[in-house]
Amino acid sequence: MSLEANLAGLNDWIHSYLPEGTPDYVSQGIVSICIFVAFIILGWIAYHIFQRYLTRWAEKTKTKLDDEILKNIKKPIYFFVILIGAYYALINFNYLSMNYSGELVFIFGIAEILLVTFIITRVVNVVIAWYAEREAKKRMSEHILFVFKKIINAFIFIIAFLVILWVNKIDLTGIAVGLGVGGIAIAFALQNVLSDVFSAFSIYFDRPFEIGDFIIVGEYAGTVKKIGMKSTRVKLLQGEELVLSNRELTSTSVRNFKKMKKRRIVFHFGVTYDTPIEKLEKIPDLVKKIVNSQELAEVDRVHFTEFGDFSLNFEVVFYMKKGDYVLYRDTQQQINFAIKGAFEKEGIEMAFPTQTIFLNK
Length: 361
Description:
Layout: H1 3-16, H2 24-59, H3 65-91, H4 94-99, H5 101-134, H6 142-167, H7 173-189, H8 191-206, E1 214-217, E2 220-227, E3 231-236, E4 241-245, H9 246-250, E5 254-256, E6 263-271, H10 277-292, E7 297-307, E8 312-320, H11 325-346
Antiparallel strand pairs: 1-2, 1-5, 2-3, 3-4, 6-8, 7-8
Helix pairs in contact: 1-2, 2-3, 3-5, 5-6, 10-11
């Protein structure tokens, strides 16, 4: 039997217990109230199951994602059940079902689709927030995350709008053509802006750099302070703020020093030509001991490389175990102090630019 036949039979059964001459709408109203109350109870039971059982089960899992999803969908599902109950309660009235059946189906169909869309957007928002929290140590831009969330939600609502049109058998050809032409026109008008926006998402997902990283772009060097939808702000070493378009950053080479785990250091020094060979031979081992005495330094090689114009030149290569620039400078300073002190103790003279002029008498 169909639903309408069941409701009609229920109405007749209720009407048989009412005093003779009672209008039909009284029995229909009683049945509608009972239907609505029954769906409220059914929704409460579903909400209770979410609250008592599914939520407790989710708390036992390692991830918090399922907890947040259940927390955000249990109330919308409760309202969805009540919405269905309201539809069947109203459709039970013969006057409404006979004269406004199409309108009721249209209104409640739209309401149900929108409520389901709302549930989907809440789940999507929870997943995005969970992903952002999991990646919080990478200090992602909240602004980009917010815009990304809004774009996804807008896309979901556009799909819901098209579903509403399709369910109600409205021709989508003209709408699709209009959206296509309008989209092309908007894309041409906002070409540069959209390019920056897509570049922002490229930076967001690919992460060539993040907030707090020290980067070099062309002749500019500084710390990333903010990554926006259109531009990225970098605080330069001189103190001023540089604003770079995201399109420019994704189309050029970016040197990111924050990613550096070890730093390779090369420096040179020279001693005078009158330094005895015995002392020259001591210099490599002497410098190696000085470099290795530093906690964060590891010597690679020390060589007497060339006979310079006014000095005997040595080259030193060592590695810093950390990429921090200030630590490198502090370590280099301590090495320089130690080399100068050791050379003074050994009687080795550091070279400086000199010229010797021989006069022929």
